[in-house]
Design brief:
alpha/beta, seven-stranded mixed sheet, two-stranded antiparallel sheet, about 20% strand, globular
Amino acid sequence: METSPHLSATGFVLAGGRSSRLGTDKALAHLAGQPLIRIALEILAAAGLPSQIAGSRSNLAAFAPEIPDTFPDSGPLGGIHAALSVSTAELNLFLPVDLPLMPASLLTCLLQRAALTGQPVTATRLNGRLEPFPVLLHRSILPQIGVLLATGETACHRAWQTIPHAFGAQLDAIPVESLVQCGQCAHPAHLPPILWYQSANTPADLERLNRIYAKLPSSIPVRSSNLGA
């Protein structure tokens, strides 16, 4: 593994879920009047990353380039395999479309950490629990992901814990609380880390996220760029 702080990096929004619990395509579900796909792309852009959409089940080409699954119906791991198959960047950051409160500063911390350590997988822990996303993956782990998918393994938790062993390494999972305490990352609206990982899996989840957004200061926009149509 290289350890140069100048490794190339790119971002991917994972948008290939069935959205069965939400009842509508998550990527196009609206939060504070904006589709979740646009918000996710905005977060990656704020972290300074060019981005694409991996594993989409809808036509989202108006928002960013799309990459079809190479292992259909294999969950996020299938979308990750497809993305790494076409990526030319050493470092690849994956953000699910349904984490709209994730601060860009945490993604930046993951990028800086992976560039310095050269670890194959860089993730986070919250309250001691491994969070599968966001995750920073080195492009070289593509073969290991292919092997897992070929054997029917689709769980990202297990993948992040086992893949590093192929490189004689261990999973690098950063405690989010430590990053916050050290002032290395924070939410622009000062939301606590537990809310950063609030996903939009169900209508109730989406309603809760909308209530949170309604309380944000007007100076904290849902989006600040003109991504997509």
